[in-house]
Write a structure and sequence with these properties.
This protein is of the alpha+beta class. It has one domain (about 20-160). Helices cover about 20% and strands about 10% of the residues. The protein contains seven helices and six strands.
């Protein structure tokens, strides 16, 4: 029995469908980030199981309203444990959210309707409920590390229903 032919995608021909992550230019790489800022939330790892838990506590450099780093060019110097994604890490990290465009592209999947490269609008990531806007309670500098467990939330690891739609709701 032969495999069913792959259904054509309306995104075929775009750079994220024609190149591997390793082949992307720096500009293309950066444009894949949808601006959700979920990766900028503090995470806890269970030492026994390795399971990752998200919190609603942002990195000290996260602007929760803008869903952007306050010092992106210098983030690694200012926050030593800030993860700078690489193609290798995209394929290995288990905590990237299901909506992460880097992960989608690595898996050969299409970007969602709300991704700015598809919608042409950087606000659709917020409209779809994917971003952290309005959901960051505090930053890591305001919460003692021993209290982070009290701030565990599940939503960053989930995809909101409206984000799963095939197109922008009218």
């Amino acid at each position: 029995m032969t495999a069913r032919p792959k259904k054509p995608s309306p995104q075929d021909g775009f750079f994220w469908k024609t190149k591997t992550l390793e082949q992307l230019s720096p500009t293309e790489w950066e444009s894949l980030c949808d601006g959700c800022a979920r990766c900028c939330l503090e995470k806890l790892e269970d030492e026994d199981t390795g399971r990752i838990y998200f919190t609603h506590v942002g990195c000290r450099l996260l602007d929760g309203d803008a869903c952007a780093c306050r010092d992106y060019p210098n983030r690694s110097d200012r926050v030593p444990d800030c993860v700078r994604l690489t193609p290798k890490e995209v394929r290995e990290l288990t905590w990237l959210p299901p909506s992460c465009a880097y992960k989608l592209v690595a898996d050969g999947r299409d970007l969602y309707w709300w991704h700015p490269l598809i919608s042409g609008d950087p606000n659709t990531v917020h409209e779809a409920g994917v971003s952290v806007r309005g959901r960051v309670e505090r930053t890591e500098t305001e919460i003692p590390v021993e209290e982070l467990e009290d701030h565990i939330v599940s939503w960053p690891a989930l995809l909101p229903k409206r984000a799963k739609l095939k197109q922008r709701p009218r």
